[in-house]
């Protein structure tokens, strides 16, 4: 796997972790919770290589 | 469980349900296998990776059908689905694979050149995932693909695509466009490997004529035409005149621009002895100001917004309430390919290519495209190839 691809996977894992953290941290705003989950989908598909 | 976590659990369930329901459809589309019945003229079927080892085992590898005549002669390569959202190409290619008989020379057909692109879609434009062509034995289902390869197969995208070897700069999307990655390289991006493999095929097999089949918007000037570089211009011009005079459809000629790199009609001619041609048939489905991108629009090309634009002379092709049907597009491609081979053969007697049993424009319009496809259920299992 080329170095740049490994780096992009690293970035994807970082962003996914931030989104999960924001989802857990959010207490009241339902729209923000839903937004975090929706944005998270492509990152999870990429990280777990679901094709 | 607190009220907050009940709310969060409910949200996770809703998002997962929507994701799985839509994901199943995309999964079925990506993994759908198209049965291709090798006709009596097909003598061997290989993989494109036979010409580029680094392509082997990748989702971009694809089948190559050979039809070799009893007599030695010239060789023609037909490339279809370079852009998989221009499906008249694969429909025409399958007519050749399932029907053509080669008496002299060879015909080589790659029906799904951008295999990865054919398993991709364009959800932002609401593309249909499949389309069905009616036949005498039922209907034949095809994947509707996208212009570029799937980012699942070639990832990550660069910020800017730097073309090899000319270093011209393109949009990042063109890194996945097999009509910008010619002539390609063995250890480049996946789509560069695809075009490199095709270049190797042409160089190894000694291909004389390469025909890359496309479709283009009715609002785009390079539509309904044959694009050719200088060395192929004479044959393209005479072909255009003959199909117009004998078969009654217009198909003008466009010169291949020297400074626009990465395109098949430019690079094939510059990097091999092969004479390239690129065919464009009008495809209303690709135009932006249309109604919903339905299967009906794809197949009959009828759209009220385009009709209105046509009355205001905003289109580059004649357009009326009959639309621009798939039969017209496929028929044009078949007739132009046959005439290009005929004109090449007239000028190169020792390298002539004689092909029969392929219908022309009028026959395809009369009988429909599906008339020429064979029923995979009744075909010899060893003659069916899935792609």
Average per-residue pLDDT of chain B, rounded, comes to 96
Q: How many DSSP helices of chain B?
A: 9
* CATH fold-level topology of chain B: Aminopeptidase
Instruction: Round the Cα radius of gyration of chain A to an integer and report it.
Output: 13 Å
End-to-end separation of chain A: 18 Å
Walk me through what this model shows.
The complex is a heterodimer of chains A (51) and B (387). Chain A is mostly helical and 51 residues long. Chain A has one domain. Chain A is built from two helices and no strands. In chain A, α1 runs antiparallel to α2. The radius of gyration of chain A is 13 Å and the shape is elongated. By secondary structure, chain B is α/β, with parallel strands linked by helices. Chain B has one domain: Zn peptidases (Aminopeptidase, 3-Layer(aba) Sandwich). In chain B, strands 2, 3, 4, 5, 10, 11, 12, 13 and 14 form a nine-stranded mixed sheet that branches. In chain B, α4 links the parallel β11 and β12. The longest helix of chain B has 29 residues. The mean pLDDT of chain B is 96. Chains A and B meet through α1 and α2 of A and α1 of B.
Question: Gist?
Answer:
Chain A is 80% helix and 0% strand. Chain A is mainly α. In chain A, helix 1 packs antiparallel against helix 2.
Give descriptors for this structure.
heterodimer; A: 51 residues; mainly alpha; B: 387 residues; alpha/beta; Aminopeptidase; nine-stranded mixed sheet; 21% strand; globular
List the helices and strands and how they pair.
The complex is a heterodimer of chains A (51) and B (387).
Chain A: H1 3-25, H2 30-47
Helix pairs in contact in A: 1-2
Chain B: H1 3-31, E1 35-37, E2 44-47, E3 63-68, E4 71-79, H2 88-99, E5 101-110, E6 130-135, E7 138-143, E8 160-162, E9 169-171, H3 190-205, E10 209-216, E11 225-228, H4 233-247, E12 252-255, H5 264-271, E13 275-282, H6 295-300, H7 304-311, H8 326-347, E14 354-356, H9 361-367, E15 384-386
Parallel strand pairs in B: 4-5, 4-10, 10-13, 11-12
Antiparallel strand pairs in B: 1-15, 2-3, 3-5, 5-14, 6-7, 8-9, 11-13
């Amino acid at each position: 796997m080329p170095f740049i691809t490994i780096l992009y996977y690293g970035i994807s894992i970082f962003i996914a972790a931030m989104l999960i953290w924001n989802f857990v941290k959010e207490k009241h705003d339902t729209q923000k919770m839903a937004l975090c989950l929706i944005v998270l989908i492509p990152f999870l598909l990429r990280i777990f290589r679901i094709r | 469980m607190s009220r907050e976590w009940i709310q969060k659990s409910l949200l996770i369930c809703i998002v997962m349900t929507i994701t799985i329901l839509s994901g199943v459809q995309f999964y079925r589309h990506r993994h759908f296998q198209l049965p291709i019945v090798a006709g009596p003229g097909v003598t061997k079927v290989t993989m494109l990776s036979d010409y580029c080892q680094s392509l082997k085992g990748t989702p971009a590898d694809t089948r190559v059908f050979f039809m070799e005549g009893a007599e030695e002669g010239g060789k023609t390569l037909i490339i279809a689905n370079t852009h998989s959202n221009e499906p008249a190409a694969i429909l025409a290619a399958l007519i050749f694979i399932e029907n053509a008989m080669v008496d002299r020379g060879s015909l080589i057909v790659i029906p799904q050149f951008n295999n990865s692109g054919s398993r991709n879609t364009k959800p932002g434009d609401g593309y249909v995932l499949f389309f069905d062509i009616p036949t005498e034995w039922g209907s034949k289902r095809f994947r509707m693909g996208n212009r570029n390869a799937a980012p699942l197969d070639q990832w990550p995208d660069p910020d800017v695509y730097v073309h090899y070897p000319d270093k011209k700069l393109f949009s990042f999307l063109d890194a996945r466009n097999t009509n910008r990655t010619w002539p390609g390289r063995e250890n480049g991006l996946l789509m560069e490997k695809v075009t490199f493999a095709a270049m190797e095929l042409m160089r190894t097999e000694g291909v004389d004529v390469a025909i890359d089949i496309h479709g283009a918007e009715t609002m785009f000037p390079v539509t309904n035409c044959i694009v050719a570089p200088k060395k192929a211009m004479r044959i393209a011009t005479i072909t255009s005149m003959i199909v117009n005079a004998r078969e009654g459809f217009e198909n003008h000629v466009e010169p291949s621009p020297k400074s626009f790199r990465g395109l098949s009609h430019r690079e094939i001619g510059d990097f091999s002895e092969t004479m390239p041609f690129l065919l464009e048939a009008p495809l209303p489905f690709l135009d932006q100001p249309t109604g919903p991108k339905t299967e009906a629009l794809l197949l009959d090309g009828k759209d009220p917004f385009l009709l209105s634009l046509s009355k205001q002379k905003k289109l580059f092709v004649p357009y009326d309430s009959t639309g621009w049907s798939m039969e017209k597009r496929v028929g044009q491609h078949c007739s132009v390919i046959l005439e290009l081979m005929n004109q090449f053969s007239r000028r190169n007697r020792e390298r002539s290519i004689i092909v029969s049993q392929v219908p022309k424009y009028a026959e395809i319009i009369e009988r429909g495209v599906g008339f020429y496809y064979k029923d995979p259920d009744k075909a010899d299992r060893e003659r069916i190839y899935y792609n």
